[in-house]
Design goal:
With about 450 residues, this protein is α/β, with parallel strands linked by helices. The chain folds into 3 domains: about 120 residues, no CATH class; about 45 residues, no CATH class; about 210 residues, Rossmann fold. The protein contains 15 helices and 13 strands. A 6-stranded mixed β-sheet has the order 7-6-5-8-12-13, with helices on both faces. Strands 9-11-10 form a 3-stranded antiparallel β-sheet. The chain has a two-stranded antiparallel ribbon with strand order 1-2. A hairpin with a 3-residue loop joins strand 6 and strand 7. Helix 4 crosses helix 6, helix 10 runs parallel beside helix 15 and helix 11 packs parallel to helix 13. The longest helix has 18 residues.
């Protein structure tokens, strides 16, 4: 007689895990900014680990935090393989979880080519044995779908916490895609948004044809709702990635990146006519593609606010939008600026100088750096760019992650010049301030 013996499964059910909740738990790991407690002393930027081993460690930590697996289960799965992770049931289950994330489009894997020296050693019998297969060098990347999902989760949590008394249409934790009607409907014209007024459309056809089945609809019967006019807006988010963003015992850059992801999702889903660009500023400034935002880390740089404003202004002037604004997230004072060689020679200043070509700027410009206090030379260069933004009709909203008296006065003076707004926040409430300010400033009513 054949018997079937059942035993207790000591792992976890991979197929029952909610990938959305898992991605939310992985957000801090996937958006890692290079925060390190020893960074202040070493001043060295560690490279982001995108290996499969790093992903497995992050997944295991996320599973533990969600209560899907405990320390005892881990010990039991490793004990069956003599305490080794390689070849254990735990490794197999984590690999299956990675396969699910790849199949659903949240992550993608890429395999780096093996170095030529290792290939020659393998063929010639060098350090390794001849014919012994080399380990595959596989790395993971967050896909556009994964980035969009992280932005959605952040946006939902932020807007859901605002409550019904706050501004905007999002009065619960669920996103709404409906459109409110503010006036009587009108006949449809080519180019109008198809927000169909079904009742008026059917009544128009019935008046013409009578109550018959099937009902014949003509082009003239189509009516659409008239709603509040929403002006288009071009936004540039300036992210300070100087070394101070991960100093003083806290990571300030990761919350700033989450803000950019939330704003990108907000624009894509609720305001498709708007545009959003990301600018990183440090010694210099450059535009950052949204796809690379998750892997961006801070560096041992100074704060060249003037160059960041200059690049943001150029990007906004190229946009044909009714409203233009800069959202600057920073935690420090300007400590650097660029000058051409002629101007730098005329100043006679003896501060720290550096050729601009070393930081990716045009030849003939030099980088002046002075991290001590509010350098009048650097401040004058910064305020010139602020005035240029004001002349171009660009509003500057500043979110300062510090509360020093001289920084508060600097931000107040800068925002007053462009009639913008200044917020003094911390990493815990930064994203709420950004989103509230964006929603308040982008709507206008046309009568």
């Amino acid at each position: 007689m054949k018997f079937i013996r059942y035993s207790k499964f000591k792992g976890f059910d991979v197929s029952s895990i909610n990938l959305g909740d898992l991605m939310e738990a992985l957000s801090d790991s996937l958006l890692d900014s290079g925060f390190d407690g020893d960074y202040y002393w070493t001043r060295q930027q560690r490279e982001k680990d995108t290996s499969l081993d790093a992903l497995r460690r992050a997944l295991l930590q996320a599973l533990i935090e969600q209560g899907l697996i405990d320390e005892q289960q881990i010990k039991e799965m490793l004990a069956e393989n003599e305490g080794k992770f390689k070849g254990s049931l735990l490794e197999e289950l984590l690999n299956q979880l990675i396969e699910r994330l790849v199949e659903e489009g949240y992550l993608k894997l890429r395999e780096d080519a093996q170095p030529q020296q290792q290939m020659r050693d393998r063929i010639q019998g060098g350090p390794g044995q001849v014919g012994e297969p080399l380990p595959r060098n596989v790395h993971f990347e967050v896909t556009e779908k994964g980035l969009d999902f992280l932005g959605y989760k952040t946006l939902r949590n932020l807007l859901g916490s605002l409550g019904k008394s706050s501004s905007g249409r999002h009065d619960t934790q669920h996103l709404s895609t409906g459109v409110e009607a503010a006036a009587a409907s009108k006949p449809y014209e080519f180019g109008d948004t198809i927000n169909m007024d079904v009742n008026t459309t059917l009544l128009s056809a019935i008046k013409r044809e009578g109550l018959v089945v099937p009902l014949n609809l003509e082009y003239s019967d189509l009516h659409i709702h008239q709603c509040d006019y929403q002006s288009s807006c071009a936004t540039v988010v300036m992210l300070d990635c100087s070394h101070s963003m991960i100093l003083y015992g806290e990571d300030r850059f990761t919350p700033a990146k989450k803000v950019a992801l939330a704003l990108a999702h907000l624009i894509r889903t609720q305001y498709p006519g708007d545009s959003l660009k990301i600018v990183l500023f440090h010694d210099s400034a450059e535009e950052l593609p949204m796809a690379k935002l998750a892997t961006t880390q801070v560096g041992p740089y100074h704060t060249n606010t003037a160059e960041g404003l200059r690049l943001a202004r150029r990007l906004l002037q190229a946009q044909r939008k009714e409203m233009k604004q800069i959202v600057m997230v920073t935690d420090g004072k300007p400590t650097a600026c660029f000058l051409d060689d002629a101007a730098s020679s005329a100043t006679g200043r003896t501060g720290s100088w550096e050729r601009g070509s070393r930081v990716g700027t045009a030849a003939g410009r030099r980088l002046y750096k002075n991290p001590m206090g509010l350098d009048p030379f650097v401040m004058a260069s910064t305020f010139r760019e602020v005035q240029a933004c004001r002349k171009a009709g660009i509003m500057i909203n500043t979110f300062m992650l510090a509360s020093d008296y001289y920084l508060v006065e600097f931000v107040k003076e800068m925002t007053a010049m462009t009639q913008g707004r200044a917020y003094f926040a911390n990493p815990n409430n930064l994203s709420q301030f950004v989103l509230i300010d964006f929603l308040k400033r982008r709507r206008s009513r046309v009568r």
